[in-house]
């Protein structure tokens, strides 16, 4: 059983990334464009309003990048930081625990994106289609003919 779960891990992580990114992007789209119920029950966030408009841009762009798996670690790290900021500035002052202060989604998104920043995108990611910088350099070294100076 453990072996099967281990083999499925990249796929489960990839699906987790896709769903988390999609839900996060929906928050940004709602705030920026008023779709899906709009920001805070209707409407949009005014352009340039601090911090709501900037948070919505991070949610939309970061969520989309995480969802497709492009620049996953960087996008997830920025998204995690934005949710930590949201939690500590908008929720934590009201009460200590997220269940008391309404900050459950901020806390969960913060930790979910931090997990993706450390684990990487998993399966089904655009990041997996491009060779990593370290692997590309190693491949170029292998393709160069060896001379007496390099042997």
List the helices and strands and how they pair.
Elements: H1 2-33, H2 52-68, H3 72-91, H4 98-101, H5 104-119, H6 133-143
Helix pairs in contact: 1-2, 1-5, 2-3, 3-5
If you compute it from the alpha carbons, what radius of gyration comes out, rounded to the nearest whole angstrom? 20 Å
How many DSSP helices?
6
Shape label: globular
- The CA-CA distance between the termini, in Å, is 48 Å
User: In terms of per-residue confidence, which ranges show pLDDT below 50 for 5 or more consecutive residues?
Assistant: 135-142
Query: Which class best fits the helix and strand makeup?
Result: mainly alpha
Q: What's the helical proportion of residues? A: 55-70%
Overall mean pLDDT score?
88
What's this, in brief?
The chain is mainly alpha-helical and 151 residues long. 66% of the residues lie in helices and 0% in strands.
How would you describe what is shown here?
With 151 residues, the chain is mainly alpha-helical. It is 66% helix and 0% strand. It contains six helices and no strands. It has helices at residues 2-33, 52-68, 72-91, 98-101, 104-119, 133-143. The protein is globular. The termini are far apart. Mean pLDDT is 88; it is low at 135-142.
Q: Which features would summarize this protein structure in a list?
A:
151 residues, mainly alpha, 6 helices
